[in-house]
Amino acid sequence: MSETPCTGCEDLLELYLDGELAEEAVRTTEEHLDACGYCRRNYRFERLFRAYMRQAISEPISPELSSKLAALKSSAK
Fold first, then answer.
1. Count of beta carbons in the 10 Å neighbourhood of residue 38
2. What is the pLDDT of residues 23-58, one digit of tens each?
3. So what's the pLDDT on residue 3?
4. 76/53 Cα distance (integer angstroms)
């Protein structure tokens, strides 16, 4: 089981998570994830991070926070 970064793994992982890999590449990637602890941890992190971000952007911003952000933006000019 590998515990060090794999060359090119990050690019493949992004494509895998985006569902953009061909069927054979999906099988190869899944086999690699089964065998490589480093990449498996990265996959789990990315999958959870994406789920968290989808949830976070779907929640409305409170009017108070919206006003504070607008004030910050105005003062930054």
1. 14
2. 999 999 999 999 999 999 999 999 999 999 988 888
3. 56
4. 26
Distances 67 to 8, 73, 77 between C-alpha atoms, Å: 43, 10, 16
Cα atoms in the 13 Å half-sphere on the side-chain side of 6: 21
Rounded Cα distance between 23 and 57, Å, is: 31
Where are the domains positioned within the chain? 9-75
What length is written for the chain? 77
Asked if 1 and 37 touch (Cβ cutoff 8 Å), the reply is: yes
Neighbours of 2 (CB within 10 A): 13
Has residue 1 got a pLDDT over 50?
no
- Does the model's pTM come out above 0.70? no
> Which token pair is 41?
């941890």
